Amino acid sequence: MIRSHARRANYHVLVAALLLLAIFGGAAALIAYDGLHDRLGKADVGVVLGNKVEPNGQPSLDLATRLDEAGDLYRQGYFKQVIVSGGPGHGGRDEPSAMRAYLIEQGVPAAAIIMDPAGLNTRDTAVNATRWMRTRGYSRVLVISQFYHMSRSRLAFERCGVRTIYTAHGRRFSSRDVFGLGRDTVGYAVYWLTD
Length: 195
Hints:
This protein is α/β, with parallel strands linked by helices. The protein contains 6 helices and 5 strands. The chain has a single domain, classed as HUPs (Rossmann fold), CATH 3.40.50.620.
C-alpha cells in the first residue's frame, strides 16, 4: 500500500515536471521565434541595450553586434538619433561610453548619440528612453538587442506606454544564447506577472 502511494506520487511528480518542461520549452521557442523576426520601421529613435564591456574598454562580441546592427540601421535611415543605455558593468567599465565610441568609429555622428548611464537593466532603459522620448514628442522606438531579449524588451517599452515598437537583433550567435534564452524566458514571465 505504501509503495503504491509512493509510486503514484512519483508518477504525479514526473507528469508535473514534464508538463512544466513542455510549457517552458514552448515559451522559449516562441520567444526565440519572435526575436529572430525583426520588425523594422521608421522610428524617432533607436535604443541599444547595454552588455558587457571587455577589460580593454572594447564592447564584447555580443554588444558589438548590437552596435553594428544599430550603425547599419542608422545609415539606412531607420532613425536619426540613437540612445546607448547601460550601467557601469563588470569592473566598473562604462557601457554607454564604450558604446558611443564604437558607434562613432562606425561612422555615426557623435551628435546623434545619446548616452543613458542609468539604464542598469531593461526596465530602467525603457523608463529612461520613454521619458526622453516624451519630452520631444516622440512615439516610435526601434529597440536593438540579442534575439532572445527582444520579447522582454518590447514588453518593457509597452509597459511604459510606447505603442509603436520596432525591433532588430544582433547577428551573432553563440552557445551562451541557450542560457540567455532560458533566462529571458523566465524574465519575460516575471515582467508579465509583476508589472
